[in-house]
Amino acid sequence: MKTVEHLRGIPALRPLRGHHPAVVVCLDDPAPYEQRGEELAGLGAKLVVEHEPGPLSARLGRPSVTVCDRFLEVALHAEHVSPDEAVTTIRWLEMRCEECPQSSVDMAPYAERGDWG
Predict the structure, then answer these.
(1) Which partner from 39, 76, 78, 115 sits 20 to 30 angstroms from 68, CA to CA?
(2) CA 74 to chain centre
(3) What is the spatial distance between Cα 91 and Cα 107, in angstroms, rounded to a whole number?
(4) Number of independent structural domains in the chain
(5) Cβ atoms of 8 and 17 closer than 8 Å
(6) Span 32-83, pLDDT tens digits
């Protein structure tokens, strides 16, 4: 799996920068993610699906799922990411605030225990 720190160099994703977190899906069968599209939209996130191998797959790998924040910093990138994990990561990304002292608190344990969301 390729190591990817950010997606700012991908022209197709530039309009999202500063506005929306994103889930980028490079899979032959993205249906489970597409079924969660409304939920992601409700969180302010954009679902970007590449159905056939193309520039996103060349850059990110195929199969892959990449979750990034609104500044296109990669939070999660792997061959196998469940739709639940992608949604949970988006929730976590939207909870944190770079300007708040609490932003350094790792919220993942709370998510695993079901304490939020």
Answers:
(1) 115
(2) 7
(3) 10
(4) 1
(5) yes
(6) 999 999 999 999 999 999 999 999 999 999 999 999 999 999 999 999 999 9
